[in-house]
Amino acid sequence: MNFAHSTTDAIQLDRVIFIGRTLSEYVKLFHLDLSQWQKSKILDCPAGAASFVAEAHQMGIDAVACDILFNLDESTLRAKGQADLVYMMERLADVTHNYNWDFYQNLEQLNEYRKTALESFLTDYATGRQAGRYIQTTLPQLPFGDRSFDLVLSGHFLFLYGDCFDYAFHWQTILELYRVCSQEVRIYPLQGKDAQPYPFLNNLINDLNHAEISAEIVNIPWEFLKGSNQMLRLWRT
Ligand SMILES: C[S@@+](CC[C@H](N)C(=O)[O-])C[C@H]1O[C@@H](n2cnc3c(N)ncnc32)[C@H](O)[C@@H]1O
To answer: What dotted CATH number matches 23-235?
Structure first.
C-alpha cells in the first residue's frame, strides 16, 4: 500500500453524501475492462448518484444499482443530490492539497463531472426503478439471492467512511457483497476521508482468508485522493 502521503486534515462531512461518479470514472477507479463484462450482470452498491448503471444500461449491460435512499422519488433525490454536491464542494475547497488535480484540473471541472453523473442518473431513475434497476437496500443486508451478480462494485462508501462504521459493519457488508457475487467484488478506495489507509485492512484480509475468501489489493492507474491508487478485489475461483 502506498503510505507516501500523510495528512491529518480530512474533508469534514457530517453524513454519507448522496453524490456519484460517471461510468468513465468507474472504469478508471475500478480498473474495469467493460468488454469483459458485456454479457454479465453487475451490481453497483451503494450507488448514490452515480450514472454507472444508467450508462451501462444504454450500452446493453445488465446492471443494477442499490442505495439506502432508493425508496425516494426523482425530485427528492434531485434536491438531495444538488444540496449534497454543494455541501461537498464547499468542504473539499478547504482541503484541495489532499487531492491530485491531474485529471480534474480544478474544482469547477470536478463539479461538472458530479453534475453530469447526477443528471444522467436522474434521467434513468424513474423508468429504471420500475424496471428493477434501482433498488432500495440497507447494508449490511442485500435483497438478492446468492451469486445473483457476476461483478459487484462498491465505491466511495465502506473504507472512505471508515470513521462512521465499525469493523463489524464492514465485515458483514463485505460478506454480503461476496455472497451475492459469482465472480468478483471490487471495493474502492482503501483510504478514509483523511487520506489515511483503512487501519483494519490487514485484519480484514486475514479474516477473509480464514473464511476461505480470496482477496488481494490491486494497484490501479487512478489517484484523486492522494494515496488512493489501490482497490480491494475478492474473487471466487
Ligand atoms: C458517496 S455515495 C456512493 C457513490 C458511488 N458509489 C460512487 O463511487 O460514485 C455513498 C452512498 O451510500 C449510501 N448509504 C449510506 N448508508 C447506506 C447503507 N447502510 N446501505 C446502503 N446505502 C447506504 C448513501 O445514501 C450514499 O448515496
So the answer is: 3.40.50.150
